[in-house]
Design brief:
single chain; 120 residues; mainly beta; nine-stranded mixed beta sheet; three-stranded antiparallel beta sheet; 12 strands; 0% helix
């Protein structure tokens, strides 16, 4: 989903059901959170007040750290997490908000065995 309406998170309120509202309307568009240096640290697409589309996080150096696809307010699809150097560290596949597959890699890119004692 590509949006032409941009909202700053500071201008958005959330109701008791966590629907995003701007003024008296549910938000449809891209909602961003801006860090102290003016860089975008989070962004998410909303449709009629709920997350619907990709949500991203970025660190202070503008490196993408995560991507989570949403459909109708719940995670749905392959979410990815990168470390500060840009290496893919985890993929989680979601169906209707529930993780159905998790894959992780260590600093060298080797797969992490499920159940191993690893730092998150």
């Amino acid at each position: 989903m590509t949006s032409s309406v941009l909202f700053n998170i500071e201008d958005v309120e959330f109701d008791q059901h966590l629907f995003a509202i701007h003024g008296d309307q549910y938000v449809t568009g891209l909602v961003v959170s801006v860090g102290p240096s003016g860089q975008v640290v989070e962004s998410a697409e909303y449709l009629a007040g709920i997350k619907h589309g990709p949500a991203y996080t970025f660190d202070e150096s503008n490196t993408q750290r995560s991507e989570i696809p949403y459909r109708s307010g719940v995670a749905n699809g392959v979410a990815k997490v990168w470390d500060a150097s840009g290496k893919l560290r985890a993929e989680m596949t979601y169906r209707n908000g529930r993780p159905v597959r998790v894959r992780r890699w260590d600093e060298s890119g080797a797969p992490v065995t499920p159940g191993a004692n690893q730092a998150p």
